[in-house]
Amino acid sequence: MTISEAIGQSIGAFILWGFLMAFLYTLVSKINKKDKGTIQLAFIMMTSYFLSAFLDYETVTLIDWATYDVLTIGVIIVWGVLIKKPKPIAFMYLIVGLSINACLFFAMYYDIYVLEQTEVWWLWTLYAIGINVVDLLMVLVLIINKDFLGLVWVCNQVKARYMHRASALK
Questions:
Q1: Which position among 56, 83, 111, 134 has the lowest Cβ density within 10 Å, counted as fewest Cβ atoms?
Q2: How many Å apart are CA 90 and CA 41, to the nearest integer?
Q3: CB–CB of 106/9 below 8 Å?
């Protein structure tokens, strides 16, 4: 195992620990509240990242990680359809965060396995930093459940403009 692989596994363990702590925090802080949406999302993310820890780092490829993120997005979307209550702010952040991660995995897969790129360039740096920053942001949003990047606000603004234009065309 190279030093970069060891660092990657250590960061992965830290992120897994973060999702575990986010789940435990939401469980303790929201257990007596009516809305359990954030607890359920934190559980989904903790379970997803926990199960991914059992993947064999020797044989797993970037396409496997991308597929795993897409499956997690699917589980979150199904959860969102099944609940009848308004979705927590974390819902949008998790969908966007996992989508970014999946896109980065797909891009790296294409670069390494299809284009057979062997020299480090900006995409590799973007991947290394992006995956970890997005994971940390997802942990953070599960803990604080606030729209700290304005993502939900922007989505609501776009949706309102789209609905306004759609109703004007009728």
A1: 56
A2: 8
A3: no
